[in-house]
Structure formats: structure tokens, C-alpha cells
């Protein structure tokens, strides 16, 4: 016979700050048992643990803690103790605060007490931080850092491109059709050697071949050098010499930022993929069409490997933002896309669904059916992502690989009409 889980003896709220934290502990009736201000260091954490132990914190009956953030050393130490930790949205805390005071007074101690009372009253409607493995937490750090590096690289490329449009259209024309644009190593190598159109026009075919080899190109060097030579020697408009030279200096500064962003993205991608491939759930993720090691790592980073985190596939879909929101009142009923969601998970979801269109006949057929039904491109992609998230939830719960035949079963054949005798 299973024993019922004992209710916690008290509830703790921590109002987080940069150099200190306010702590409040309330009992099940709402009476404040203790309050304190702790420092943001090991001594402050030890003081918090001692305070919790004085009010009934036991190894088999931990006092839950509510706080307004899900990251930081304090959170890591609290999670390591095995206690449930709840990250409460600051907007929700503001609403709870208004329940106790209409004068709109606010202080760190009041917010700490409000956080503790949130757990006392509505603990069941909030989700505690997942009990992810150490490897999953490391993958989350790397995957989010790599995604940030990719966004930084795109921003640096856009800044450089905007700058080059002002005075250097030749380099833009030279790499307009390249897959990686200005992020290509050939483009960055040539731009570093010739940061102005005047210097680009002075490059000979021999110099261009040398630069292409330095960039790592091994095929089609002669043809590429001839193409670049022809582009750089076209007739273009120019700024005055000193103005063009100043633009060149600024271009080199922006180019250094782009080089660093590209290097960071590549190094973090390699580290992220290496960590993801070592995770036992990696084969399940990569068995799905359109999911590689990097995109699989980004999804694992956001949903974790705690199987009890989501009670159902619907909860996971809502967290990913793929499930729609229904607003019904009286005779009106409106179905809208979900705005409150995990933005990182939603971003990789659109990439996943788009990539699967060429990898899975079933996914392509599902997308086409949604388009014929009237969905726009984004809506059809979101619907396909929603279906994939349901499949992923099932595969993770049952430790099964993706099966195309089960995921998108073929429709039964239509019966032919009987022929007359």
C-alpha cells in the first residue's frame, strides 16, 4: 500500500536580490514564523538551511521554497538539497501582493511573505523546478549559450552588412549568393585583407587565389578568383578617399566582432553536440525527422529529462506554445495562438517542423492538409510541431524511437464500387 505524501510543515519565500535575499517562513495557517535577511554567499545559504531546520525541515519532509528566479547559485544549492523549489513569475507575485494590501505598499520582506503564501494557498497550480540530471543541466547551459551566440552572430552580420551598404557594394555583390553570406570564412578573409573598395580593386588574381586558399577552399579556386576579380573591378561610386578610409577602419572593427561571434557559435555548438550525444535520450530525439544533435539538444535543454515534469502531453504542448488557446464567453468562441510560452522551445520548433517537410512524407502530407484546410504557413507549421511534441512525449515516456508508420499511418484504401454483373 502506498503511503500518502505528508504535507509540508511550513512554506518558505525568498525575495531575490543581487547581494542579499529576504526570507519569510509561514505555517499552514498563514502565521509568519520567521523572517530574515541573508547574504548572497555560502554563509547566507547556511543561515537559510539552519532557519528551515528550526521550523520542521526534515530529510523526508522538506519545506518547499518559492523564489522569483530559476537560475543562480542559490537555486542550484536549494535544488541540491532535494527540496521542491518553485520559480514564481514576478507578475504573479504582484497580483498576490495586492490581495493583502490595497495601499500598494511594497518591500522585500513583504514580497518574501507573499511568495511563501503563494505556496501555502496555491501550491498545486504552480510547477516546481524539474529534477533534471546533471548532464541535462549542463546541456541546457551549452544549448542556450549556443543559441545566444547564433543570435549574436546574426546581429553582428546585420550590422556589418548595413555598414558595407554605405560604401562597399562590391563585397556584398561578391557573396550575395553564398549560403552563409558575410559569415562565410572566404568573405571574412577577403574583407580583412581589403576593407575598402579601393583596396579590393587592387587585388590581383594571384592575391585572390592566395586568400581563398588561406580561407580553406580547395576546389574551384581559379574560377572563384576570376569571378571575384571581375566583381571587384566593376565601376562603382566612391566616397572621398579619407572618408572611405574611415569607413574601412569601422568595417575592421565590426569584422572583429563578427569573427568572435562566429568562433563562439562554432565552439559552443561542438561542446553542445558532444554533451548531447552522451545523453541516454539522444537516440530518441535524433530518431525524429528533421531533428539533429544541435536542435535535439535545444529541445532537451528546455524540457529536461525529468519524466514527472509534465503530467500529460497537453502540458508539454502548452509549455512549448504549440497548443492553441481557446477563449469562450457566451456565444463567442475564439481559438488563438499561444503567446505565453517557452520562446526558445517555440523557436526551435518552427525549425524542426520546417526541416521535417523534406525528411518525412507523413509530415509533408500533414502540412499540406492543413494548408488546404485554410491554415497559413506559420499556422500549419505550428500544428505540425504540436503533433511532433505529442509524439515526443510518448516516445520519452515509453523509451521508444520514432516510427513513421505509427506517427503518420496511411489512410485505409477506399473501397471500389461493385461492378454490375
Layout of strands and helices, then pairs:
Elements: E1 10-16, E2 20-27, E3 32-39, H1 42-53, E4 65-67, H2 73-80, E5 85-87, H3 90-100, H4 108-122, H5 134-167, H6 169-174, H7 185-193, H8 197-201, H9 205-214, H10 221-232, H11 241-277, H12 282-286, H13 293-303, H14 313-320, E6 325-329, E7 332-336, H15 343-356, H16 361-372, H17 377-398, H18 404-407
Helix pairs in contact: 3-4, 5-11, 5-13, 7-9, 9-10, 11-13, 13-15, 14-17, 15-17, 16-17
- Strand percentage lies at 5-15%
Name the poorly predicted regions.
Answer: none
Number of helices, where a helix is a run of at least 4 consecutive DSSP H or I residues: 18
Shape call: globular
Mean pLDDT: 90
Oligomer: single chain
Run of helices and strands: EEEHEHEHHHHHHHHHHHHEEHHHH
Number of strands: 7
Structural class label? alpha/beta
Numbering strands along the chain, what is their spatial order in the largest sheet?
3-2-1-4-5
| CA gyration radius, whole angstroms | 29 Å
What is the first-to-last residue Cα distance? 68 Å
Major sheet size, sense and barrel closure:
5 strands, mixed
**Share of helix, binned:** 55-70%
Count of the separate structural domains:
3
Question: Can you walk me through this structure?
Answer:
The chain has helices spanning 42-53, 73-80, 90-100, 108-122, 134-167, 169-174, 185-193, 197-201, 205-214, 221-232, 241-277, 282-286, 293-303, 313-320, 343-356, 361-372, 377-398, 404-407, and strands at 10-16, 20-27, 32-39, 65-67, 85-87, 325-329, 332-336. The protein is of the alpha/beta class and 421 residues long. It has 3 domains: 10-129, Ribonuclease H-like superfamily/Ribonuclease H (Nucleotidyltransferase, domain 5), CATH 3.30.420; 138-274; 282-404, no CATH class. A hairpin with a 4-residue loop joins strand 2 (20-27) and strand 3. The longest helix has 37 residues, at 241-277. The protein is globular, with a radius of gyration of 29 Å. The mean pLDDT is 90.
Amino acid at each position: 500500500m502506498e503511503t500518502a505524501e505528508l504535507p509540508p510543515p511550513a512554506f518558505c519565500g525568498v525575495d531575490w536580490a543581487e547581494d542579499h535575499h529576504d526570507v519569510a517562513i509561514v505555517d499552514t495557517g498563514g502565521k509568519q514564523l520567521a523572517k530574515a535577511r541573508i547574504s548572497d554567499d555560502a554563509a547566507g545559504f547556511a543561515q537559510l538551511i539552519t532557519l528551515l531546520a528550526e521550523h520542521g525541515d526534515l530529510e523526508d519532509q522538506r519545506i518547499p521554497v518559492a523564489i522569483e528566479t530559476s537560475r543562480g547559485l542559490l537555486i542550484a544549492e536549494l535544488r541540491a538539497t532535494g527540496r521542491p523549489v518553485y520559480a514564481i513569475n514576478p507578475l504573479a507575485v504582484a497580483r498576490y501582493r495586492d490581495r493583502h494590501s490595497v495601499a500598494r505598499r511594497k518591500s522585500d520582506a513583504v514580497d518574501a511573505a507573499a511568495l511563501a503564501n503563494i505556496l501555502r494557498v496555491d501550491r498545486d497550480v504552480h510547477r516546481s523546478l524539474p529534477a533534471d540530471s546533471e548532464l541535462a543541466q549542463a546541456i541546457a547551459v551549452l544549448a542556450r549559450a549556443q543559441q545566444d551566440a547564433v543570435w549574436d552572430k546574426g546581429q553582428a552580420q546585420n550590422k556589418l552588412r548595413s555598414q558595407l551598404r554605405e560604401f562597399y557594394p562590391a563585397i556584398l555583390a561578391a557573396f550575395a549568393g553564398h549560403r552563409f553570406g558575410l559569415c562565410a570564412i572566404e568573405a571574412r578573409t577577403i574583407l580583412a585583407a581589403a576593407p575598402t573598395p579601393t583596396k579590393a580593386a587592387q587585388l590581383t588574381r594571384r592575391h585572390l587565389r592566395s586568400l581563398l586558399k588561406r580561407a580553406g577552399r580547395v576546389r574551384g579556386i581559379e574560377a572563384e578568383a576570376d569571378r571575384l576579380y571581375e566583381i571587384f573591378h566593376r565601376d562603382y561610386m566612391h566616397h572621398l578617399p579619407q572618408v572611405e578610409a574611415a569607413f574601412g577602419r569601422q568595417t575592421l572593427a565590426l569584422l572583429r566582432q563578427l569573427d568572435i561571434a562566429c568562433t563562439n557559435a562554432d565552439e559552443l555548438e561542438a561542446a553542445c553536440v558532444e554533451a548531447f550525444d552522451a545523453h541516454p535520450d539522444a537516440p530518441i530525439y535524433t530518431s525524429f525527422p528533421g531533428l539533429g544533435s544541435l536542435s535535439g539538444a535545444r529541445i532537451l535543454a528546455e524540457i529536461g529529462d525529468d519524466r514527472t515534469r509534465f503530467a500529460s502531453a497537453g502540458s508539454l504542448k502548452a509549455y512549448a506554445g504549440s497548443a492553441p488557446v481557446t477563449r469562450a464567453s457566451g456565444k463567442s468562441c475564439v481559438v488563438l495562438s499561444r503567446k505565453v510560452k517557452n520562446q526558445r522551445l517555440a523557436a526551435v520548433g518552427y525549425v524542426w517542423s520546417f526541416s521535417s517537410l523534406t525528411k518525412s512524407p507523413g509530415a509533408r502530407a500533414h502540412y499540406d492538409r492543413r494548408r488546404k484546410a485554410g491554415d497559413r504557413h506559420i499556422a500549419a507549421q505550428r500544428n505540425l510541431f504540436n503533433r511532433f511534441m505529442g509524439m515526443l512525449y510518448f516516445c520519452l515516456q515509453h523509451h521508444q524511437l520514432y516510427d513513421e508508420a505509427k506517427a503518420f499511418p496511411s489512410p485505409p484504401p477506399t473501397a471500389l464500387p461493385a461492378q454490375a454483373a
